[in-house]
Specification:
This protein is mainly alpha-helical. The protein has 11 helices and 2 strands. The radius of gyration is 21 Å and the shape is globular.
Amino acid sequence: MFNRTAVSDFLLLEFSEVPELQFLQFIAFLMVYLATVTGNLLIISSVVLDHHLHTPMYFFLMILAMQDLGQVSVTIPKSMINFLLNSRYISYSGCVAQVFLFMFFIASDLCILTVMAYDRYVAICNPLHYEMVINWQACREMLAGVWTAGFLCAGMHTTGTFATYFCSNVVNQFFCEIPQLIKLSCSDLNLIEITTLGIGIALGLGCFFYILVTYAHIFTTVLRLPSAKGRQKAFSTCIPHLIVCSTFLFTGSIAYLMPVSNTPSWLELIFTVMYSLIPPMLNPVIYSIRNKEIKKAISKIFGFRYFSRNT
């Protein structure tokens, strides 16, 4: 029989009881966090400071970078503090806040990636109507829609997750992740959160298929361009976006759909790290590695002169 108790705090995953290994884990998380913060701050600074990047495409890229900063800041700092203090503790209210904010940034990321796909579709497939369709008023309205959807999604998931009794307070993950919390529920079936997860998965798949169809049209149009330089420029803005979307959705789907074990699992940890930490860290690299405008803007920030192969 389940022991229904009022949980006042949670115990997060302890990677190791050995102090030396805990310190190495702290260093690893610190390096990931610093790399993520540095990369995304460079993207934000580049877009803000370079007037050439004051366009809808880079505006949405800046929003994605801001959301990625928020996403990692919700989870990693608490884990690093626990490593240093040799603690696993997180308060009930802290866990609620972590779930809400994490889901807000995750849902907002999915929405902004969908908006970015639409932006590229209009720019490449209907270039003559681009300024009329993707104007700054439309950008503000789409951003408001993105954050409203993120807020509603986060509210639904948080309410569904914590609208139940917990029979344990041991979370087998380094942050308060929803599948792990559902596993702690005294109820065999948390209908509220499972329904919410089902809706979220359906919306996620809908966004993913929309992105795929959008890029199918984009690539069809790009291949018809007579100029090789035009095709190269189009691919340089589209392929990174498609890589980011695929990685984010694939790893996130596996992490949320795979059965949750009763004991800590390295496989679960790996997939959680892959969807929660790796995309925010790699997004600045993926978006800038083939983007000359971003490279030029970053070079200006550091006072370097950017040399293009074509110049």
